[in-house]
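Much of the work behind modern protein science is quiet bookkeeping, done one molecule at a time. The protein below has been through that process, and both of its lines are reproduced in full.
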Amino acid sequence: MADDKTTVVESGGGAGTVIAVVVGIIAILVVAYFLFGQGLLNGGTKKVDADVKVETPK
């Protein structure tokens, strides 16, 4: 009879990887909020004084 060979691979740490990814995403969102979102949530607008000169061909 032939011998049946079975290979078992245990990667382990699946839950730890998921937790690390979730924490990483939350950290990125917090940093993005502090960089960009504070003025967006409280409705503040900023006046931009731009002096734009457009040259058209004659």
Notes: The mean pLDDT is 81.
